[in-house]
From TrEMBL:
<dbReference type="GO" id="GO:0005524">
    <property type="term" value="F:ATP binding"/>
</dbReference>
<comment type="subunit">
    <text>Monomer.</text>
</comment>
<keyword id="KW-0067">ATP-binding</keyword>
<keyword id="KW-0808">Transferase</keyword>
<dbReference type="Pfam" id="PF01715">
    <property type="entry name" value="IPPT"/>
</dbReference>
<feature type="binding site">
    <location>
        <begin position="38"/>
        <end position="45"/>
    </location>
    <ligand>
        <name>ATP</name>
    </ligand>
</feature>
<keyword id="KW-0547">Nucleotide-binding</keyword>
<dbReference type="InterPro" id="IPR027417">
    <property type="entry name" value="P-loop_NTPase"/>
</dbReference>
<feature type="site" description="Interaction with substrate tRNA">
    <location>
        <position position="129"/>
    </location>
</feature>
<comment type="function">
    <text>Catalyzes the transfer of a dimethylallyl group onto the adenine at position 37 in tRNAs that read codons beginning with uridine, leading to the formation of N6-(dimethylallyl)adenosine (i(6)A).</text>
</comment>
<protein>
    <recommendedName>
        <fullName>tRNA dimethylallyltransferase</fullName>
        <ecNumber>2.5.1.75</ecNumber>
    </recommendedName>
</protein>
<keyword id="KW-0460">Magnesium</keyword>
<dbReference type="InterPro" id="IPR018022">
    <property type="entry name" value="IPT"/>
</dbReference>
<dbReference type="GO" id="GO:0052381">
    <property type="term" value="F:tRNA dimethylallyltransferase activity"/>
</dbReference>
<feature type="binding site">
    <location>
        <begin position="40"/>
        <end position="45"/>
    </location>
    <ligand>
        <name>substrate</name>
    </ligand>
</feature>
<comment type="similarity">
    <text>Belongs to the IPP transferase family.</text>
</comment>
<dbReference type="GO" id="GO:0006400">
    <property type="term" value="P:tRNA modification"/>
</dbReference>
């Protein structure tokens, strides 16, 4: 427990130090970039659309599920109508059989941001994937290719010794890397130890050597009371099912994707595919989707709560989304006009 709490405190300190040094999240002259974060179902797409239409903006998606083509209903991706009204980037463009890393997203998102600016428009990065947003602003070190033998051995140790044993080992060889890994994130612990074994050097040191200049931006977060967000998640799921979420899952099942393909493993589709296979009722699938979406929202809230530099906007009713857009516009104008 002490290791977990120390890791959280150190993680927050490192993020705070980085944002102060780089300017991310800080108000500075002409910060013509907006980043909009928050839990799933918090209204980020709504606010982003309002801002884009008022401020000649283009939206860069930052959602690890909305990237997949043909999964627009279940991932609540911007509709075709929204994409016709406002230019969107990195949304509904990838085959569900294709994997997509945060490192690749960071490169493509940064390119999109700079392209938008070259046209004189306002980049609005909107999404709930904290790692994607970090990759876009700061970049990510991807490291050497995976070693399946090392990964299998480390994964077996997690089963036999527990994740805390590997966290303690990582704390000995690379405490800085451990500080940036949330408790329970076994994938990143394994990757950090894997890179240490492959290179003999801490991943944190390799990241510093290959770091690039961070993109400056104003970061805004949308925050709802937990009961209100729970209701919004339930209402959204009902709308998705009415719009054809199940039919979308049927098309995905008919596409006969490989077992390892990320599309069928996406939240919501896994449960509906289980229903279609006869493993659960539709009502049970709906309940499972709602529960896992609430769990996702909690993880997102934890991530962004530990991200310094976020200007939080408290919400309590749907009409507050229009107010949030106005507040962001006012703050952007204020920051731009400062001497």
């Amino acid at each position: 427990m002490a290791i977990r709490m120390d890791a959280r405190r150190t993680f927050a300190f490192l993020w705070r130090s980085w944002t102060v040094a780089s300017g991310v999240g800080r108000e500075f002259r002409n910060p013509r970039r907006i980043v909009l974060v928050g839990a799933t179902a918090s209204g980020k797409s709504d606010v982003a659309m309002r801002l884009a239409e008022r401020l000649q903006g283009e939206i860069v998606g930052a959602d690890s599920r909305q990237i997949y083509l043909g999964l627009e209903i279940g991932t609540e991706a911007p509709t075709q109508e929204d994409r016709a009204r406002v230019a969107h980037h990195l949304v509904a463009f990838l085959d569900p059989a294709e994997t997509y890393s945060a490192g690749r997203y960071g490169r493509e998102a940064r390119a999109a941001i700079l392209e938008i600016e070259s046209r004189g428009n306002l980049p609005i990065v909107a999404g709930g994937s904290g790692l994607y947003i970090r990759a876009a602003l700061e970049g990510l070190f991807e490291g050497p290719s995976r070693d399946d033998t090392i990964r299998a051995r480390l994964t077996r140790r997690i089963r036999e010794e527990g994740l805390d044993a590997l966290r303690r080992e990582l704390e000995r060889v690379d405490p800085e890397a451990l500080a940036g890994i949330l408790p329970g994130d076994s994938v990143r612990v394994v990757r950090a130890l894997e890179i240490y074994e492959l290179t003999g050097r801490p991943i944190s040191a390799l990241r510093r050597e290959r770091a690039r200049e961070p993109l400056q931006a104003l970061i805004f977060g949308l925050r709802w009371p937990r009961p209100a967000l729970r209701d919004r998640i339930a209402a959204r799921l009902d709308r998705q099912l009415e719009r054809g979420f199940l039919e979308e899952a049927k098309r995905l099942a008919a596409s006969a994707l490989p077992e390892h393909a990320p599309g069928p493993r996406t939240l919501g589709y896994r449960e509906l595919l289980s229903h279609l296979a006869g493993a659960m009722t539709l009502e049970d699938a709906r309940a499972a989707i709602a529960l896992k979406t609430r769990q996702l929202a909690k993880r997102q809230e934890t991530w962004f709560r530990n991200t310094p530099g976020v200007h939080w906007i408290e919400l309590g009713a749907p009409e507050d989304l229009a107010r949030a857009a106005r507040e962001i516009e006012d703050r952007l104008d204020h920051a731009t006009d400062r001497p």
